[in-house]
Amino acid sequence: xxxxxxxxxxxxxxxxxxxxxxxxxxxxxxxxxxxxxxxxxxxxxxxxxxxxxxxxxxxxxxxxxxxxxxxxxxxxxxxxxxxxxxxxxxxxxxxxxxxxxxxxxxxxxxxxxxxxxxxxxxxxxxxxxxxxxxxxxxxxxxxxxxxxxxxxxxxxxxxxxxxxxxxxxxxxxxxxxxxxxxxxxxxxxxxxxxxxxxxxxxxxxxxxxxxxxxxxxxxxxxxxxxxxxxxxxxxxxxxxxxxxxxxxxxxxxxxxxxxxxxxxxxxxxxxxxxxxxxxxxxxxxxxxxxxxxxxxxxxxxxxxxxxxxxxxxxxxxxxxxxxxxxxxxxxxxxxxxxxxxxxxxxxxxxxxxxxxxxxxxxxxxxxxxxxxxxxxxxxxxxxxxxxxxxxxxxxxxxxxxxxxxxxxxxxxx
Length: 413
Hints:
413 residues, alpha/beta, Peroxisomal Thiolase, Chain A, domain 1, 2 domains, two-stranded antiparallel sheet, 13 helices, 14 strands, 33% helix, 3-oxoacyl-[acyl-carrier-protein] synthase activity, transferase, Beta-ketoacyl_synthase, EC 2.3.1.179, fatty acid biosynthesis
């Protein structure tokens, strides 16, 4: 099987719209959460989110095409272009039929759905846009990126709620590993800071209502957490077979080592007791990598800042790593970015890769009063310079979907 490496990264996020700004803000422990500006929240219980700021799609896409793309697709195209540039990959100099796209979205074009539903009700069916369906469907990020960059290889899209981004990266890894492509552009994208989504998640009691202190609202593993904070953005990785990367002299950021995916088969929204499904998922990724639990130094946790997730993910880590669990650095970068839903796994795979590349682990901010049930080393408050040989990134989604990828330091031998 082929070895697979990461050679390019692209990000649109609440912490910045380029890799350098994003990483620097994360390492400094900055929060991307603030009052919602995209719609009037007067009647809403929840008034905060982690919005993407200063994003201009015209920096990446022409005006005519922009009007035919939902915001989640615009994010994906922008992040994909940045990732290709970061990888130094010129599509005119590679076999386009061996370059694929695997970019998922948990929800897809909800903004388009909201807008066109209003058109239907107020102006009638004849006024609904002919672009409504192709702008809304969740696979379109992967499809449009392939069109925009000319990638003619394997193209698909995972849709597994909050596990989407990690499933996309993991599935793309397997495509490369078995030799069905030389390059994959993979990750997740989401743009759902919208009245319907905020109202829906709020009705579930899933969102934090700490409206008076937005920057402190996302507080994974903290005793006083009261829900997640919705985020938006895209995280896209360029992944290649090692042979292809070496032939073109690519800069290698990290190696993709393993992938696990399991189902809780338990509940619509709640994780399985004691994180049983997440535990098996991490064990699968470690086994797939041909590694041992003791080989890992860092976990980018799913860490949503919800009661059950944080408690059960902690139990899952203990179950998978046994006594080594207490030697791991575990952080939830959702404390800063909010929860990007289907894009979370893409963003967090990027964080794991950069942690290995820079030997630096980002913090969990707002962890002021640790939950007694959450007793691991969550890197509270400040980033930590440390040895990171290998890292896991976890994503756990509604419906009981679990996904974990294992990354490691790239060594030539």
